[in-house]
Protein: Peptide/nickel transport system permease protein
Amino acid sequence: MSTPVSLDLHGTDLPDMKLRKNSLWRMRFQIFCRNKIAVVGACFVLLLVICALFAPWITPYSYEKGSVLEAFEKPSLAHLLGTDAIGRDVFSRLIYSLRNACIVGFGAQLIELTLGLFIGAIAGYVGGRTDSILMRVVDIVYGFPSFLLSIILIILLGHNIWAVLIAVAATSWVGMARVVRGQVLTVRQSEYIDAARAMGANWWQILTRYVLPNSMGPVLVAAAFGIPANMMVESGLSLVGLGLQPPTPSWGSIIADGQKGIFSYPYLLVYPSLLFAITLLSFTYLGDGLRDAFDSREA
Structure:
């Protein structure tokens, strides 16, 4: 179980408790840094985010315009990863597809985190009928095929990136809510929570200042694994033609186009698939590192 935060109810932490909390986070950071694969994954994720943020300045060509006279050009200095069937630069399209994947991956995860924290924390801490009602809602959403629900929402909202983001988040928050609820149920039984009640803290103070901060380890790990999962859903929707529509680039649509010329122009499939796989692996290694760092037996 994570080390509790301070029980001071007047807005300031005691110096020794502050020191203990800072030492705990420093220890977790050191554990994470000892995992070399996790550090490599984190560095690659950071590089991907930088590329996504600065896509307009990194890409040498437009992602939507090309010339049929330059169709199917092999990788060269002019076109680092070659060109596609209508002469568009593959490198530029991959960078913008990365940008769209990050928007959906991180944006949907932020929504999932917000909904999961709110619903899971209320259900776990209040308990009783409130817990039963909220968990039945979670069970209903969880029991519905998530991919099918995403398709329905996209059809209703449109085939744009914000519709895809909402569709992905609407089907993924239930897992986060369950993680948060489980942690809150565990932490609220701690002795320092009883001490906070004895010192006059109300339920909102206890929940926001003591329960949630000591429940964030597994939540952060779940969030790290949730981002690539969201990217996979976005790519899967585009792969079957139901996500982002041309000329908006998506890993799924780029891979689908590359499959058509796999024998004649293998680079159209190899490079996008390789980057996609490395991205997912990097997030996975990052999540593994965070899980080890927040493991109670380690920290």
User: Anything to note?
Assistant: Residues 15-294 form a domain with the MetI-like fold fold (CATH 1.10.3720.10).
